């Protein structure tokens, strides 16, 4: 049975979260009211997973994540408010080693928590399986691109990730030079209140112009879109090197929305120029069908290797299709992408 520690300064929230997890056969072995208590309890109990609030007295969730990862490395799920400040703080926690994020229910928590029950249980189980010994690549050590490199025209890259993905997605995009003039579509399984902030971080930290997707958006060379949480991102049109996307709330696939498969399948059907699919760390099978579709359409495919994945689910399922061209460690994925779009010398 999965053993969990619940950390929140609200007695009510600790009780509600505990009740939900225990209803899903997750054993809550301890609770903590602030980050300092969390550090001590985790060291004592050595749980499989921690749910961590962000704003707490004495020591906040970000500081607690950093100390836990230094002293007793443990998979941590951040539970954050639906606010811009909450999203920013959560990404700071991910930078320090937290594995994933789930938005706290807002408004009348007592009436809405039941609607989030399955999501919380599934996310906790997923995070508990994460390998915390895996570190995201350091963007500052990315291999420089030779200035005389030349690339094929109008190439599109589709990147899909889930649990443990945000830091890896950032490192991959940071390794892609603007001179490659790629069009990049990113599907990261993430709550809808966090994808806009994730897009802004990618925009700030990479050479690409990145934004959260809106219905009808078009992108060209040097631009990227992040699929909006709770919406599938379909490629609806392609002409003269520009991609148009459509957002839908069609039925969830693999229990998620956005789904990697939706973006990859519609890209394979619509885009006629060079196309590369990339699947990164995450739980589940989303992306396997999409990789197969892109391979069958003449595109190239890359999967992150097991040794560098927090959770080797999505890449493993894609590899099992027999349609993956290259299996690479996280810090080589960007160069692997460039090899698929580099003109022969």
TrEMBL record:
Its EC number is 3.1.1.61, 3.5.1.44. It catalyses: [protein]-L-glutamate 5-O-methyl ester + H2O = L-glutamyl-[protein] + methanol + H(+); L-glutaminyl-[protein] + H2O = L-glutamyl-[protein] + NH4(+). The active site is at 162, 189, 286. Residues 150-344 form the CheB-type methylesterase domain. One of its GO terms (biological process) is chemotaxis. Signal peptide: none annotated. The modification 4-aspartylphosphate is found at residue 53. Involved in chemotaxis. Part of a chemotaxis signal transduction system that modulates chemotaxis in response to various stimuli. Catalyzes the demethylation of specific methylglutamate residues introduced into the chemoreceptors (methyl-accepting chemotaxis proteins or MCP) by CheR. Also mediates the irreversible deamidation of specific glutamine residues to glutamic acid. Belongs to the CheB family. This is Protein-glutamate methylesterase/protein-glutamine glutaminase. It comes from Haladaptatus paucihalophilus DX253. The gene is cheB.
């Amino acid at each position: 049975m999965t053993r969990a520690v619940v950390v929140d300064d609200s007695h009510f929230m600790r009780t509600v979260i505990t009740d939900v997890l225990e209803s899903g056969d997750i054993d809550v072995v301890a609770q903590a009211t602030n980050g300092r208590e969390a550090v001590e309890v985790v060291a004592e109990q050595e749980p499989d997973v921690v749910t961590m609030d962000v704003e707490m007295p004495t020591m906040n969730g970000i500081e607690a994540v950093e100390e836990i990862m230094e002293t007793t490395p443990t998979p941590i799920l951040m539970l954050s408010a639906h606010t811009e400040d909450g999203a920013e703080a959560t990404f700071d926690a991910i930078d320090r080693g937290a594995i994933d994020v789930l938005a706290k229910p807002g408004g009348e928590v007592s009436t809405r928590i039941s609607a989030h029950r399955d999501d919380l249980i599934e996310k906790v189980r997923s995070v508990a399986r994460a390998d915390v010994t895996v570190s995201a690549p350091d963007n500052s050590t990315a291999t420089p691109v030779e200035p005389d490199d030349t690339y094929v025209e109008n190439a599109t890259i589709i990147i899909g990730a889930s649990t443990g993905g945000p830091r890896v997605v950032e490192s991959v995009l940071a390794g892609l030079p603007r001179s490659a003039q790629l069009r990049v579509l990113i599907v990261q399984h993430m709550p809808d209140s966090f994808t806009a902030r994730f897009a802004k971080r990618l925009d700030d930290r990479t050479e690409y112009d990145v934004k959260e997707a809106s219905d009808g958006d078009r992108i060209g060379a040097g631009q990227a879109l992040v699929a909006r949480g709770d919406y599938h991102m379909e490629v609806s049109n392609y002409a003269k090197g520009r991609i148009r996307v459509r957002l839908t709330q069609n039925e969830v696939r693999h229990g998620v929305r956005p789904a990697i498969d939706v973006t990859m399948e519609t890209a394979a059907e619509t885009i006629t120029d060079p196309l590369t699919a990339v699947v990164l760390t995450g739980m589940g099978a989303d992306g396997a069908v999409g990789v197969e579709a892109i391979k069958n359409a003449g595109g190239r495919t890359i999967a992150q290797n097991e040794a560098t994945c927090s959770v080797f689910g999505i890449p493993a399922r894609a590899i099992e299709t027999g349609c993956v061209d290259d299996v690479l460690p996280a810090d080589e994925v960007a160069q692997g992408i460039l090899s698929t779009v580099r003109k022969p010398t």
